[in-house]
Amino acid sequence: MKAHAAVRLYFDRAADRLDLAPALRRLLIIPKREVQVQIPVEMDDGRLETFIGYRVQHDDSRGPMKGGLRYHHEVDLDEVRALATLMTWKTAVVDLPYGGAKGGIAIDPKKLSAKELERITRKFTDQIHDIIGPHEDIPAPDMGTSSREMAWIRNQWEKYHGFGPAVITGKPVEHYGVEGREEATGRGVGILAYKLLGHLNRKPNQTRVALQGFGNVGSHAAKFLHESEYKIVAVGDHTGAYFRREGLDIPKMLKYSLANKGMLQGYTDADRITNDQLLELECELLIPAALGGVITAKNAERIKAPIIIEAANAPTDPDADAILEERGIKVLPDILANAGGVTVSYFEWVQNLQFYKWGLNRVRQELDSVLSRAFDAVWQEANTQRCSLRTAAYMIAIRRVKAATELAGLG
Ligand code: GLU
What we know:
Blueprint: H1 3-18, H2 22-29, E1 33-42, E2 48-59, E3 65-71, H3 77-93, E4 99-105, H4 114-128, E5 137-141, H5 147-161, H6 184-199, E6 208-212, H7 216-227, E7 231-237, E8 240-243, H8 250-259, E9 271-273, H9 275-279, E10 285-288, E11 307-309, H10 318-326, E12 330-332, H11 334-337, H12 340-354, H13 360-385, H14 389-408
Parallel strand pairs: 3-4, 3-5, 6-7, 6-10, 10-11, 11-12
Antiparallel strand pairs: 1-2, 2-4, 7-8, 8-9
The structure holds glutamic acid.
């Protein structure tokens, strides 16, 4: 199923329960603005290449729009629209004063030099500089981007608008970024796993974990779960997956991947399995932390883990979700499970606007309290409504966006 249709189905399930009027549904579904731009760039060898970039701004009723920038060869308008919509529900469910947006460029960053990436990023910023800003739309890293790209975007944006580090988050610490932003999504997964397992009466050291993805989100999640004594039996990245019944040596894998351009390829201290085998592994907790659409109607029947935490955005197709629910598998939905990143982005933005720097401990403590509060609300909603955690999270989010939209009036 196409990404936006999937997000829309999840929205409709919750909107039905809320008895949301059709006119309001339409308003909350259609993005406020969608921009597609041409990015002509001279490559290192002198060739001209033209790339396509997107920024979709979904909703701003609760505050400036917020969401990452994805560099991946499969990026298209439908996917960016879906991810922008997810950001609206994500910021609403954790109650950050933001709306939702997302952007991306259809490129494979691994095949480009740093100089080419810099030219592409700066040209893209030239095309969208007038629709982003600290009080309008604040981009951040996502798949394929990091603090490096954020520094280029800030620098390029400031050429037009003057000093304004709050235009973007996930910046290098030397450039008004915050310590703790890079680890935030992974740490958030750890915090939420602790809460969820507690409610399900499971102990970390009796929990075997299969983790798909070892990028920024997956590697930090692995680190926190390992430190909390979970037994991580499988880890995969785009080069393949690695299995060890007694538990993988996560510190060793982190070191290996760091020295190997962020890849696990060639890691020998484990058995090789496929990414499909990883998803269907005998374990207690499955964490998809990479691409969307990996849990489908085809493999949902075969998934053995009783708990799934969606560290990736949109990893589960709605028909698969229905199968998982019927089978009694608990799914912590993406809009809550990976909200640690945007939450610390919010802390970065607040610090930039106030020119005041928090310490790392404060960042971590406040992240814990924001996510714990959001988890408790979603857990309670699911119990009173007798629905899945996903529908509960959407219901809370939609209620908040609806209230803000109605209070503002239509002008
Ligand atoms: N790209 C991340 C996400 O999907 C972070 C967004 C942000 O920090 O604004 O939530």
